[in-house]
C-alpha cells in the first residue's frame, strides 16, 4: 500500500503538471469567443430575411397565446410552427434549478457568433430577474426602438410594466401583455361572520393599511380563523412598496417596508394568526377547501383566482370541495398596491427576423383586439388600460369564483398604483433569501439580527460581488 | 505463492494493461480534464455577475483562505456526518439483520423472494417524487400530525421542518428508506457465493444462529462489507438531493441541515468557479482522509493482495 | 431440544412481524403515488388520502394529449439507461478482471488511484464536464450521458471485491489450458461467474441513470432528446393555466413502471436463488 501510494502520488503529480496546460488551452480557446460575453455584446446586430425564428421560453404559456391569437401562426407540431415562410422553433427549458436562466446565460452572450438560423430571436423573462437581461452593458436584449417600436405604441400599457424592463438609460427593452396587478382575496363566509359584511368596499375598510390589517387579524384569531395562510402571502405586498432598491453601489440594504414585513409577520406568527409554511404547500392551500374554511384571506392576482384556488362553479371538472366552487371568495385592493407574475417578451440582439419580431411584440402586447381576446379567452389580466376599463364596466368581467363580483375595477386601479421604479437586478436572489432567512426568526430559531446575518450570508453566496 | 503464479502466467500479464485501456481512456477525457479544470479554477477569482464574467484573476490560495476562515465548513461537515450516522446505523443494522435471517437455515423464512424483492423498491422512486410524498405526509394538516393529535401526544400541529432534530431525522429517515434495500441487496448478492453446505455443516456441529452469522457469514462477506462501508461513507459525505429538496436548498433551521455538497451547490448556482473549485478540492481531501481511515480500520490491505 | 424449538418459534414470529412491517413501509409509497395519480389537481391540493379518486384515465389522457413528448422521453430514457448500465457493468468487470487476474507493474498504484477517484463527488467536476461537452459539440447528444459510464470507479470497486471472493483462478487457468484467448476467457468464464454481481450493479446503474436529472438537464435542450426526469420537471414548471398535479403524479407513475419491470427481471439473479453457476473452490 505504501509503495502504491508513492507511485500514485508520482503519477498524479506528473498528470497535474501536464493537464493544467490542457485545461488552460481549452480555457484560452474559449476566451476568444467569450471576450465579447465578459463585457456584454458590444455591438448591436439586427437584420431581416431570416428563415428560422427561435423563441426561448420556460413553459407553454406564450406558445399557446401565439397559437391562439397570432393569426399567421400555423402549428406544425407541439414545438414547431410556421409564420409565412419562417419556421418557428420553441426552445423550451424548464425553470427548475435555474435551468432556464442558465440556458439564456450560455446562449445570449454568444448569439452573434451562432449561425443565423441557430440564433435566439426572442426570449421571455420574468420581472424578478428582468434587469439582468435588459441591462445596457450586457446588451443581449434589443431596445424596442432598435426594432422601430415607438414609446407611443406602448401608451396603453401600465407604467410599472415598462419600468421593469427599462435599462439604466431609460430605454425600454421588453414588453408584456399581462399586468398582473393583485389584491386581497377574502373568504366571504368568514368576512360575514367576523366583520359583519362581505361587501368589498366595507371589507376594504378592515384591511386598508397594515395597522388595521393587523387589528383585523386579532379579531380573526378570536373567531378561530387565521388571517393569512402563511407569512409569505403578504411578502410581495410589502416588497413592492420599498423606497429604495435592494442594492446600490454593490451594497445590500434592507428597506424599512421589508423590515416592517418581518416585524409584523413575527407578531402574527407568535399570536398564531398565521403560519410559516411555504407558498404552494398543502398547508397553504388547505384554506382553499370548504372542509377547513379557516383562512380569512390570500394575496393574489387574477390568475390565482382563476387557476389555483379550485374549480369554478359549474366547471366540467366537478366539485373539488373548494370554496372557489361555491363562489365563496371576494376581492378587494388590500393595504398596498402590488403585482404578482407576468412574462415579458424581449427581442434578442442578433435576431435576423426584425420585422416579424416587431410585429409579434406589437400584436401580442399592444393590439386592442388581441388584448381583449386574451382577456376573455385566457382570463389574463391584460396590460391595456382601454381593455381593462371596458371589462370593468361590462358583465364579461364578472367572475364566478368571486360570487359574480367584477374585479377589474380594482385590478385596473391597482395596476395604476404599482410602482416598480426601485427594482434591481438582484431582486430575485434577495427576495428569496430574505424570506427564507426570516422563517428562522418566525420559527423562533434565532432573533431578527441572527436572521439578517443569515440573509447576508446567502446573498453573498448568490452574488459574490455584493458587500 | 505470488512468485509461483507470476512465472506461470507472466506472459499473459500484458493483457492487464489492455483491459485497462477503455476505463482510463474514458476517465481521462470525461473526468480528469474537468477535474483539473476545477483544481485550476480554485486559484482564481472567477464568477458571473449577471451576464458579466468577473475574472479570472489569480488569487493564489485566497479562495481557500476565505472558505476556511469563516468556520462554516466545520459546521456543514458536522451536519453531514450527523445525518449520515442517523441514517446509516439503522441502515446497516437492518441490512445485516435481514441478511442473517435470510441465510439462517433453521429459521426457514417463507416468502423470502417477496421480502427480498420489495425492500429494494423504494430506491426506484426518484428523490424529487419521494419528497413530494413526504411533504404531504408531514405537513401541518397531514396524516402524521392528525395521528399524533388524535393519540393525544401533541396538542397542536408540529412543524417537522421548522425544528433542528426533526428536520435531520426526516432527512435521515428518507435516506434510510431509500437506501437500506440497496445495502441489503449488495449483502445478499455477496451471500449467494457462500455455499449452503457450510451452513448445514455448522448446524450439524451444533452452532447457534448467532455463531453461524459471526463465524461464517460475516467473514465470508468481508470484501462486500468493506465495499458497503466505504461507499456508504462516500455517499454520506456526498449527501445532497434529499436535504436539498426537503429544505428547499436552505439547509434550515439556521443551516443545521446544510451538507457540504449543498454548500458547494450554492457556489455552483452562482457560477462561482473559483470558490466552488476550492471547496471541491477541500471536499476531495476530506473524503480521501476519511476513506483511508476506514480502509485501515477494515484491514483492507489484506484484501487487495 | 424442546426449548430450542420454542425459541425458534419466537424468533421466527419476530422475523415475520419485522419483515411484514418493512414490506408495508416499502410498498406504501407506491400505493400513495398510484392513489395520487387518480386524483385531480383540486383534490390533491386538499392533501393526503389513501382513497383513490376517479381521475386516473383523465390524467393519463391529458398527459398523452398534452405537448410533452412523453413516449419519446421514455424511449430516450430507455436507450440511455440501458446502454449506460450495460457499459458500466461490462467495462467495470473488465477493469476489475485486469487488476485481479493479472500481476503487472504498477498494479497496486492503479488500484489505489481508482479508489481515490471514487471519492470525487459528481458535482465537483460538473461545471467542467458541461463546458467540455459544449467544447466538443456534444450538446443534445446522448454520448456524454452514455460513454462516461465506462469509467465507473464505484461499480469497479464492487466487481473487484466480488471477484476476489468468488472467482477461482483455477477456472481461468483451465480455460487457458484449453487454449482459449484472454478476451474469450474473460467473456466465457469470468462474466458468467459474476452474474449476481452484474445483476446488482446493472440494477443500480439503470436506476441511477433513469432517475438522473442533474447532468441530462445541462446537456439536453431539444425536445426530441429530453429524458423523463426533465419532462417531469417541465410538467411541474407548467404555467398556471396548465398546471396540474394530477398529471405530475400520472407522469411519475408512468415513468416508474419500466424501471420496476427491469428490476423484477434482473432481481431474479439475486433473490431467486439462481446460483452463480460455476464451481466453488
Write structural notes for this entry.
The complex is a heterotrimer of chains A (467), B (305) and C (281). Chain A contains 19 helices and 14 strands. By secondary structure, chain A is of the alpha+beta class. A 7-stranded mixed sheet of chain A has the order 2-3-4-1-5-14-6, with helices on both faces. In chain A, strands 7, 8, 11, 12 and 13 form a 5-stranded mixed sheet that branches. Chain A has a two-stranded antiparallel sheet with strand order 9-10. In chain A, a hairpin with a 2-residue loop joins strand 2 and strand 3. The longest helix of chain A is centred in the first third of the chain and has 37 residues, at 2-38. Chain B has 14 helices and 2 strands; from the N terminus they run H-H-E-E-H-H-H-H-H-H-H-H-H-H-H-H. Residues 1-7 of chain B have low confidence and may be disordered. In chain B, helix 2 (14-41) packs across helix 13 (273-297). Helices cover 71% and strands 0% of the residues of chain C. Chain C is globular. Chain C has helices at residues 2-36, 41-44, 56-65, 70-101, 107-117, 126-135, 143-146, 153-166, 169-177, 182-193, 195-210, 214-219, 228-236, 245-271. Chain C contains 14 helices and no strands. Chains in contact: A-B, A-C, B-C. The interface between B and C is large, with 102 and 98 residues.
Write out key terms for the chains shown.
heterotrimer; B: 305 residues; mainly alpha; MetI-like fold; two-stranded antiparallel sheet; 14 helices; 4% strand; disordered N terminus; C: 281 residues; 71% helix
Q: Work out the count of structural domains of chain C.
A: 2
Query: In CATH terms, what is the fold-level topology of chain B?
Result: MetI-like fold
What form of chain C results from the Cα inertia axes? globular
Question: Helix segment count of chain C?
Answer: 14
CATH superfamily of chain B: MetI-like
Strand percent estimate of chain C: under 5%
CATH class of the largest domain in chain C: Mainly Alpha
Largest sheet of chain B: 2 strands, antiparallel
Biggest chain contact: B-C, 102 and 98 residues
Number of strands of chain C: 0
> Which structural class best describes the helix and strand composition of chain B?
mainly alpha
Helix and strand content put the structural class of chain C at mainly alpha
Task: Tell me the name of the CATH class of chain B.
Answer: Mainly Alpha
Count of DSSP-assigned helices of chain B:
14
Largest sheet of chain C: none
- H/E element order of chain C: HHHHHHHHHHHHHH
Query: In the CATH classification, which architecture of the largest domain in chain C applies?
Result: Orthogonal Bundle
Give the CATH H-level superfamily of the largest domain in chain C. Answer: MetI-like
CATH-scheme architecture of chain B: Orthogonal Bundle
Helix proportion of chain C: over 70%
CATH topology of the largest domain in chain C: MetI-like fold
Amino acid at each position: 500500500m505504501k509503495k502504491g501510494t508513492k507511485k500514485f502520488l508520482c503519477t498524479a503529480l506528473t498528470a497535474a503538471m501536464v493537464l493544467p496546460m490542457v485545461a488552460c488551452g481549452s480555457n484560452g480557446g474559449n476566451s476568444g469567443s467569450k471576450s465579447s460575453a465578459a463585457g456584454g455584446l458590444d455591438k448591436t446586430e439586427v437584420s431581416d430575411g431570416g428563415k428560422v425564428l427561435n423563441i426561448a421560453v420556460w413553459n407553454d404559456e406564450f406558445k399557446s397565446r401565439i397559437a391562439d391569437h397570432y393569426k399567421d401562426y400555423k402549428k406544425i407540431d407541439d414545438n414547431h410552427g410556421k409564420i409565412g415562410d419562417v419556421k418557428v422553433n420553441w426552445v423550451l427549458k424548464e425553470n427548475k434549478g435555474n435551468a432556464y436562466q442558465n440556458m439564456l446565460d450560455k446562449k445570449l452572450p454568444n448569439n452573434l457568433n451562432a449561425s443565423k438560423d441557430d440564433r435566439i430571436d426572442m426570449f421571455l423573462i420574468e420581472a424578478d430577474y428582468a434587469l439582468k437581461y435588459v441591462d445596457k452593458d450586457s446588451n443581449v436584449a434589443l431596445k424596442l426602438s432598435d426594432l422601430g417600436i415607438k414609446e407611443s405604441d406602448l401608451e396603453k400599457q401600465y407604467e410599472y410594466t415598462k419600468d421593469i424592463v427599462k435599462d439604466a438609460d431609460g430605454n425600454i427593452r421588453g414588453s408584456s401583455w399581462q399586468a398582473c396587478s393583485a389584491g386581497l382575496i377574502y373568504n366571504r363566509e368568514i368576512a360575514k361572520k367576523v366583520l359583519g359584511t362581505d361587501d368589498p368596499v366595507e371589507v376594504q375598510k378592515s384591511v386598508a393599511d397594515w395597522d388595521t390589517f393587523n387589528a383585523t387579524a386579532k379579531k380573526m384569531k378570536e373567531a378561530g380563523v387565521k388571517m393569512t395562510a402563511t407569512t409569505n402571502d403578504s411578502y410581495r405586498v410589502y416588497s413592492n412598496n420599498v423606497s429604495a432598491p435592494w442594492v446600490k453601489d454593490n451594497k445590500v440594504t434592507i428597506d424599512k417596508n421589508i423590515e416592517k414585513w418581518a416585524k409584523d409577520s413575527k407578531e402574527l406568527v407568535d399570536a398564531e394568526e398565521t403560519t410559516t409554511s411555504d407558498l404552494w404547500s398543502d398547508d397553504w392551500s388547505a384554506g382553499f377547501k370548504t372542509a377547513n374554511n379557516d383562512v380569512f384571506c390570500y394575496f393574489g392576482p387574477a390568475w390565482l383566482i382563476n387557476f389555483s384556488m379550485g374549480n369554478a362553479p359549474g366547471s366540467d371538472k366537478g366539485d373539488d370541495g373548494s370554496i372557489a366552487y361555491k363562489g365563496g371568495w371576494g376581492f378587494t385592493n388590500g393595504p398596498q398596491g402590488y403585482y404578482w407574475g407576468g412574462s415579458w417578451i424581449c427581442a434578442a440582439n442578433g435576431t435576423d427576423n426584425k420585422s416579424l419580431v416587431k410585429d409579434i411584440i406589437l400584436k401580442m402586447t399592444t393590439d386592442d383586439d388581441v388584448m381583449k381576446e386574451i382577456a376573455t379567452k385566457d382570463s389574463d389580466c391584460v396590460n391595456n388600460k382601454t381593455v381593462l376599463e371596458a371589462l370593468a364596466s361590462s358583465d364579461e368581467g364578472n367572475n364566478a369564483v368571486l360570487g359574480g363580483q367584477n374585479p377589474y375595477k380594482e385590478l385596473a386601479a391597482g395596476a395604476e398604483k404599482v410602482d416598480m421604479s426601485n427594482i434591481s437586478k438582484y431582486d430575485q436572489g434577495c427576495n428569496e433569501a430574505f424570506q427564507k432567512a426570516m422563517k428562522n426568526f418566525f420559527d423562533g430559531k434565532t432573533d431578527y439580527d441572527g436572521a439578517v446575518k443569515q440573509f447576508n450570508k446567502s446573498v453573498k453566496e448568490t452574488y459574490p460581488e455584493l458587500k | 505463492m505470488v512468485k509461483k503464479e507470476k512465472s506461470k502466467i507472466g506472459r499473459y500479464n500484458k493483457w492487464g494493461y489492455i483491459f485497462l485501456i477503455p476505463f482510463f481512456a474514458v476517465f481521462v477525457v470525461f473526468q480528469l480534464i474537468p477535474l483539473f479544470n476545477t483544481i485550476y479554477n480554485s486559484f482564481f477569482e472567477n464568477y458571473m455577475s449577471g451576464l458579466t464574467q468577473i475574472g479570472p484573476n489569480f488569487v493564489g490560495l485566497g479562495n481557500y483562505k476565505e472558505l476556511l476562515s469563516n468556520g462554516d465548513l466545520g459546521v456543514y461537515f458536522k451536519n453531514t456526518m450527523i445525518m449520515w450516522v442517523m441514517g446509516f446505523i439503522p441502515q446497516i443494522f437492518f441490512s445485516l439483520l435481514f441478511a442473517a435471517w435470510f441465510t439462517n437455515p433453521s429459521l426457514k423464512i417463507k416468502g423470502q423472494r417477496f421480502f427480498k424483492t420489495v425492500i429494494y423498491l423504494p430506491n426506484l422512486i426518484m428523490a424529487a417524487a419521494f419528497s413530494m410524498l413526504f411533504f404531504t405526509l408531514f405537513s401541518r394538516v397531514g396524516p402524521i400530525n392528525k395521528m399524533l393529535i388524535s393519540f393525544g401526544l401533541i396538542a397542536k400541529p408540529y412543524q417537522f421542518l421548522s425544528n433542528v432534530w426533526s428536520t435531520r431525522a426526516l432527512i435521515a429517515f428518507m435516506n434510510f428508506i431509500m437506501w437500506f434495500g440497496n445495502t441489503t441487496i449488495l449483502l445478499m448478492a455477496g451471500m449467494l457465493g457462500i455455499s449452503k453446505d457450510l451452513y448445514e455443516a455448522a448446524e450439524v456441529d451444533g452452532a447457534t444462529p448467532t455463531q453461524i452469522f459471526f463465524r461464517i457469514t460475516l467473514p465470508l462477506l468481508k470484501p462486500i462489507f468493506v465495499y458497503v462501508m466505504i461507499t456508504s461513507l462516500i455517499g454520506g459525505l456526498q449527501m445532497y438531493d434529499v436535504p436539498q429538496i426537503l429544505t428547499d436548498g436552505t439547509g434550515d433551521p439556521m443551516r443545521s441541515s446544510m451538507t457540504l455538497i449543498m454548500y458547494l451547490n450554492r457556489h455552483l448556482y452562482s457560477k462561482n468557479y473559483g470558490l466552488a473549485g476550492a471547496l471541491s478540492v477541500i471536499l476531495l481531501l476530506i473524503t480521501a482522509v476519511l476513506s483511508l481511515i476506514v480502509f485501515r480500520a477494515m484491514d483492507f490491505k489484506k484484501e487487495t493482495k | 431440544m424442546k426449548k430450542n424449538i420454542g425459541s425458534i418459534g419466537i424468533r421466527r414470529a419476530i422475523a415475520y412481524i419485522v419483515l411484514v412491517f418493512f414490506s408495508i413501509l416499502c410498498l406504501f409509497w407506491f400505493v400513495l403515488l398510484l392513489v395520487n395519480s387518480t386524483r385531480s389537481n383540486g383534490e390533491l391540493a386538499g392533501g393526503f388520502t389513501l382513497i383513490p379518486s376517479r381521475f386516473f384515465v383523465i390524467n393519463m389522457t391529458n398527459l398523452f394529449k398534452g405537448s410533452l413528448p412523453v413516449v419519446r422521453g421514455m424511449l430516450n430514457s430507455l436507450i440511455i439507461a440501458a446502454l449506460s448500465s450495460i457499459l458500466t457493468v461490462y467495462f467495470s468487470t473488465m477493469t476489475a478482471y485486469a487488476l485481479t487476474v493479472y500481476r503487472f507493474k504498477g498494479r497496486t498504484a492503479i488500484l489505489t488511484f481508482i479508489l481515490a477517484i471514487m471519492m470525487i463527488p459528481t458535482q465537483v467536476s460538473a461545471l467542467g464536464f458541461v463546458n467540455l461537452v459544449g467544447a466538443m459539440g456534444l450538446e443534445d447528444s446522448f454520448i456524454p450521458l452514455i460513454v462516461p459510464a465506462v469509467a465507473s470507479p464505484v461499480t469497479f470497486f464492487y466487481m473487484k471485491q466480488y471477484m476476489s471472493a468468488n472467482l477461482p483462478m483455477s477456472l481461468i487457468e483451465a480455460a487457458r489450458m484449453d487454449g482459449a484467448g484472454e478476451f474469450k476467457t474473460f467473456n466465457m468464464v469470468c462474466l458468467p461467474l459474476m452474474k449476481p454481481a452484474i445483476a446488482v450493479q446493472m440494477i443500480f446503474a439503470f436506476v441511477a441513470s433513469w432517475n438522473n436529472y442533474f447532468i441530462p438537464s445541462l446537456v439536453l435542450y431539444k425536445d426530441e432528446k429530453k429524458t423523463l426526469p426533465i419532462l417531469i420537471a417541465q410538467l411541474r414548471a407548467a404555467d398556471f393555466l396548465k398546471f396540474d398535479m394530477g398529471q405530475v403524479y400520472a407522469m411519475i407513475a408512468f415513468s416508474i413502471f419500466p424501471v420496476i419491470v427491469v428490476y423484477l427481471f434482473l432481481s431474479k439473479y439475486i433473490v431467486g436463488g439462481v446460483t452463480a453457476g460455476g464451481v466453488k473452490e
